[in-house]
Amino acid sequence: MKLIRTEDAVGHVLCHDITQIIKGVTKDAVFRKGHIVTEEDIPVLLSVGKENLYVWEKEVGMLHENEAAEILREISQGEHMHPSEVKEGKIELIADCDGVLKINGEKLRAVNALGEMMIASRHGNFPVKKGDKIAGTRVIPLVIEEEKMNRAKEVAGKEPIFQILPYEHKKVGIVTTGSEVYHGRIQDTFTPVIVDKVTEYGAEIEGHEICDDNPEMIEDAIHDLLRRGCNMILCTGGMSVDPDDRTPLAIKNVTGNVVSYGAPVLPGAMFLLAYYGGDLPVMGLPGCVMYAKRTVFDLVLPRIMAGEILTKENLDLLGEGGLCLNCPTCTFPNCGFGKCGSR
Questions:
Q1: Are the folds of 2-55 and 62-166 the same?
Q2: Which residues are in coiled coils (predicted)?
Q3: Mean pLDDT score, 138-144
Q4: What is the helix (H) or strand (E) element at residue 216, kind and residue range?
Q5: More confident residue, 177 or 48
Q6: DSSP state of 329
Q7: Phi, psi of 308, rounded to the nearest 5 degrees
Q8: Which CATH architecture has domain 2-55?
């Protein structure tokens, strides 16, 4: 850094905060370290007694924090988000739509491991709403080696660290199973819960069938809903290991492609995920979805609604963080449930 006359400082970058003290009114930085001095700033600087300033002296191979922050933004920002203005080497990313936040955790860790720069975010694989802050990036020192920022670009590669997957419009078919419901012995209290959850993500209910525990009847109901244009099928009931619970068999017979029957999540261990034709989700929902505040369905549904094709590995990874603590006051998603990292 170098010391220059304040009148000659236009276009230069301050190397320290400039504090303004007005008795009984304020004592705060009127200009922050890293501020680029403008013509309009000169009278203010002189009024606080700064006739000389320490400014950053441009060196070959060094970048100002704001220049470097733009590089962090470039490697971080994916589709459906926009950046805040750069300030003191910091840029934030804001969601432009509702959807699911996807994070390349390996790249995120690699960039943070370089030192003198950081990227912090909310958890991946969880819903975000338009206007939500999803990540913040910052360069730590006032100046940083250009070579170091080039390394950040190398480890990040061509694909951005963050993406938002917008929700797709889904036409949902619901198959309610159980002879007790089919014969009217009890009221169907499961379907209203499902309707509330899927419509929260913009889905529409295209059809609803009620079946007894006959697997052929359940198969026929699923096929009928598929013919009516449903592109997501939810089967409720009959998902335990009791001999007369035949819903998993029916789903398997229709799809021939069961990703997993069982998930390492409580509540929700008896969850079943399958795909018809390779990309149309058919799910078997255990009874806990009807009465528990949050279950495996709440972890999987947003990702399905965003068009993700989930694998068994995706479900296996839910084990870390997959235990709901049934808190007296539910704060989901602002809690540890489902927070297994961006993998």
A1: no
A2: none
A3: 90
A4: helix 215-227
A5: 177
A6: S
A7: -70, 140
A8: Alpha-Beta Complex (3.90)
